[in-house]
Amino acid sequence: MQDYIRKYFWLVGIVVVAICAALAGKSVNHIVEGLFLSDSAKPAKPVQVTKARTPKKTRRSKFGDPLAKRNIFCAECQPVEPSAVAANPGDPNSVPFTALPLELVATNVSRNPDDSFATIRNTTSKSQGAYWVEQSIPEAGKVVAIAGRYVDFENQTSKRRERIALMTTITRKSTPKATPRPTPPRSSRSQKRDELSAMIDEGVKKIDDNNYEIDESLRSKVLSNPMSVARGARIVPSVKNGKPNGFKLYAIRPSSVYAKIGFRNGDTIHAINGYDLTTPDKALEVYTKLKDAGNLSVTLTRRGKPVTINYTIR
Hints:
This protein is α+β, with helices and mostly antiparallel strands. The protein has 2 domains: 66-172, SH3 type barrels; 191-313, PDZ domain (Pdz3 Domain, Roll). It has helices at residues 2-8, 10-36, 65-69, 168-172, 188-203, 216-224, 257-260, 280-290; strands at residues 102-108, 117-122, 128-132, 136-137, 141-146, 150-155, 161-165, 204-208, 211-214, 234-240, 243-250, 268-272, 275-276, 295-302, 305-313. It starts with a helix and ends with a strand.
């Protein structure tokens, strides 16, 4: 191996010389470039740096006139200056309001007065249309000027200048007097209910908490039409210990016959004149037997205590 290295060691010297020559060539190249290939001696043009403009401070105001006058469809457009006539529409020396049945619905004001137009409605004929300057309003006259809140026209009859302004129809109209609404006729059902209530008031006389007198005409009225008093209370079967023991009363109306004859919410009726009311069939049987009776004795339970109410039919 040593012999092999000694034999070809001269190649190492050649490689070192080649590397040194390459480095020397690059150094010479940079020196020549710096001497003969430099930039022009003419000084470069200085770059102008513009200072940022500070925005002009505007005095802030709480008034909303600039915002109200701004055209939301054109940011660069200037607001249209009102004419001398429109500057003070409340001045008595200015153009008077018209007495014709005309209503200004809307205006569209342009920079060019010839392009401005207004929508006007005739409150009598209900006709409506758009009119430009120099156009004639039917049955009124020729349009003279169109502003933001009013329109002036020449009355074809009086030959004078008159004005239609926004919202004037509201301020000029007097508030109409409220006419009383006619009372709707009472239905036959409500009339019958009132008649029944009056008959119950007159036909039931309370002696004490457990004794009442009932007029015969009231009993005949109720027996002939039981449905007339069915809505006065809610009657449901009562069950105790798994067995029916009568009927319970709920939601008794104060003006019903149940309230007038002494029944109260929660009462459970067990028997009438000793006849048990355990089922609907027995209740129908009791009704058949006692519909002509002169005295009725109702046995019930009220708040866990037995109570007996007696009725005398006269």
